[in-house]
Amino acid sequence: MSGPLYHGVCWYPELWSEDVWREDIAAMRSLGINLVRMGDFLWSTVEPERGKFDFSLFLRAADALHAAGIRFILTTGTAAPPVWFTYQHPERCHADGRGVMSHGSRLHACINNPDFHQAVAQMLEKYAAALGSHPGLLMWQIDNEIKSQVGDCLCASCREQWHGWLKARYGGIGTLNDAWTADIFSQTYQSFDQVPQPLPTPFLHNPSLLTAYHRFTMETAADYAAMQAEVIRRYSSAPVTTDGSIGFHLDHSAMFRKLDVATFTTYASQENHAVYLMNHDFWRNVNPGKKHWLVETTCLHAGHSDHIAAPLPKGYLAAEAAAGYALDSQSFCYWHMRQHRGGCEIGHSALLSAWSARTAGWHEVEKAAEIKAMLEPLILRTKPVKPQIALFYSDIARAYCETEKLSLGSYTGWIRTLHKLVFHAGYPRDVITESADWAGYRLVWSAFLPHMDDGTLEKAERFVRGGGTWICGPMTGHRTAEHGVPTDYALGEIERRFGFSTKFIAPLHGATADVEGCAERAALTMWGFAFDEYGLTPLGRLRGGCMDGEVFFAEMSVGKGKLVLLGGTPAGEDGEKLLQWIAEKYIGQSGVTRDAVPSAGVDVIARENENGKALIAVNMDSTVGTVRLNGETISLKPYQTTILYDGTANETP
Questions:
Q1: Is position 133 within any domain?
Q2: What is the pLDDT of residues 586-605, one digit of tens each?
Q3: What CATH number is attached to the domain comprising 555?
Q4: CA 222-217-180 angle, 5° bins
Q5: Catalytic residue positions?
Q6: In a domain, 106, yes or no
Q7: Which of 126, 273, 406, 458 is deepest in the core (most CB within 10 A)?
Q8: pLDDT tens per residue, range 291-306
């Protein structure tokens, strides 16, 4: 979608009188708010009884926003079905290890339940027909944070669909038995109906079953979103999206292939500013060539009845907005406009209090509006320069790591660590998934990727042979597509394609890293891979542990490029220093260039058009930062944004 940059809020007109609406809309206009998201939880308002619909309140709200020149996103409201849907119908509710979910929150309905699909479709048809052609409508958002607070569902509807999913995937039960090595623990099945859901067992489920169930959950969630999109598109030409977030129980690549725009939610703290940036580096690549949208963050602090988060420091919100827009987000939106007067999120910050006073967050939003005004002309006439470094993120890999738990940290946490190291080294970066094109990068790092599908491996081989540097590891390639162990090579197809050999795979307890040229002797953890030296240039050996003296870190030339094998996970503070050393070593060797040299915590973002290039510097840190550019050192105050250079303006009179 093209158009202006958007500065937005979430709004709940169903909670307030129309006199309060007028106050809210006037406040929005004074802040330069030009986008509202509404309808998150409207279902009981528009269908208080089954089959009795009334969208008049939201039509009036839409008209009021449009009259004020404010565009809006309509949320389908299906995250919180009314009580009439679930009362005396526990079979319609999500069920997991905690039991059957109750009415009283959100995400309590099973999104695979056929009665739920029927009720959703019926309501959405009326909703889209009523508001789908409104001139103020910008976009539709399906549901709200799908699979955020729930994961795999274990209800009867899911059991039936699980069996159908298995039959479609494997064809015959013998194929499943073979793929899962089902003879172990006498798990052989005679029919798909016998295959259990991952209910409690005395010991452990087969990893093949668990990972398959995670994938079933993710695929059916994508189908659920596609079902809603199909209904909406019958009545409305507006784009359709949903709000994702790294860490939700989704395959975001699969989800957004069926939707029009990638949008996301984040509540990263200032201390985790690298996580905030990683969100943009990821979501920018979910729908390549299209802007992504940040549709929900806080203006000051997150909060609910169980927890109140620390507020953002003064000035930081403007830095978030600047970085988001510069990294090609079309929007920067807050949850929410007016503090809720009841409910479990009464402690969450808003722009206005429930008693209509401006909050501490209001003044931070004013600063963000000023930054938007400063950057918007430059952003609208340019596009981002593609980084030369990519970090690989996979929701499928995360599912493997949920099944076979990492003994230190989480999958998402480790990818965030690698991203932070590249950011602190001062380089632009992308975060890519299985659907990405590797062309144009100089360095790609894939870590904690237990299985690489054939398509991704083909991209990796083509990338390396064409001159790229691929860091493979740690813990990459040692599992099959069915979450088993390869039987041809230790690392399966990776070894066959590239012609190296893994001698041993064993836990790294008691081992440290002895890396040539690096002073850090970091402890190593989790699974370790010891490589045969033949055909490799050894760079690091294990000291101590059961594989003492073996090579765990090596490289080899392949075609015009280089394959780097990292067979151990460095742990702790020294481990992070070793990973930083590895990142900087191969950034240098792979020929990655940059326009300026920032200090840690400062992001320098390049944008370009046919006239030239522009550089935007954003200091995300709480201390003074610097940027070296053309022999000059430029200082940035905490959370300061500056345009370092702009060669993109058309100088023709």
A1: no
A2: 999 999 999 999 999 999 99
A3: 3.40.50.880
A4: 130
A5: 145, 296
A6: no
A7: 273
A8: 999 999 999 999 999 9
